[in-house]
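Hi,

I'm pasting everything inline rather than attaching a file, because the server keeps stripping attachments. The sequence lines come first, and each chain or strand is labelled.
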Amino acid sequence: MKVRILVRLKPGVLDPQGRAVHHSLDSLGFEGVEDVRIGRMIEMEVADGTSDETLTKMCEQLLANMVIEDFAIEKLDGEKEPA
Amino acid sequence: MAFKAAVITFPGSNCDRDMAVAIEAVSGEPAIRVWHGDAQLPEGLDFIALPGGFSYGDYLRSGAMAAKSPILRAVVAAAERGVPVLGVCNGFQVLTESGLLPGALMRNAGQRFICRTVELEVANTTSLFTNGFESGQSLRIPVAHHDGNYFADDATLDALESEDRVAFRYVQNANGSRRNIAGVLSANGRVLGMMPHPERAIMPAAHASMGGADGRAIFQNVISGLVAAA
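And the predicted assembly:
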């Protein structure tokens, strides 16, 4: 089973990287960019029976830092696999 | 009392030798070098130091992988028994990732790696690490980091301040740290994490713009505090 984890900074946590990228987009002339926040995507191949509980524990114990980050777990079936 | 200290080395640590040299310079006893893959610490340690560097190449997040290494379980257990632990720079990141200290160290607000000597103000004067200082005393100690921007939520910051657990503050905040925090203590005051490098400031340098000896006092405080308690 393919699993995709999205790790994002919590709302309210300043994102200096996002702000710098936002600034660069503005300076390239792209208009209407309201906000940029940068996160991390982790793709894993795990055993089919892996429980949501186990995946959540993986995120809480290692993949995300719960002080500053939130995570979302997305299970991908074969046909929707990313290229 | 023979002072028995250990310095933990992870793959990518690069201030471990400096830390060992600093400990020996102040205590007169060579520090024991411990490798990250070791499951156990030497018996009867008086002090554990987690050095600066880029453990595991800063993969995932600074300090995240080191915090899950076998030796860190032993360090956490030792800290819970009251063995003093000092984490500097990457060592501070490891301490927050391991849960021994609250908060997190994020990318510097200005995005840049900062490498220079900064002025710190001593905030806590009662811990093992800081009891030789006067409140508000100024120290000049070098920083060298990309991820030194201390973050914790307001409730955690309020608690740290009301419990007198902010050890040091930046006089001029260069990295965006909340409330200018440069170093944080555990609830029992025996674990200190700090971004500045006291081990790089243990002897006066030939040129006034370099080095300095203000970091030496932090090691002296620990050693004299432990001797007094023994």
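The two ends of chain A are 15 Å apart (CA to CA).

If the labels don't parse on your end, tell me and I'll reformat.
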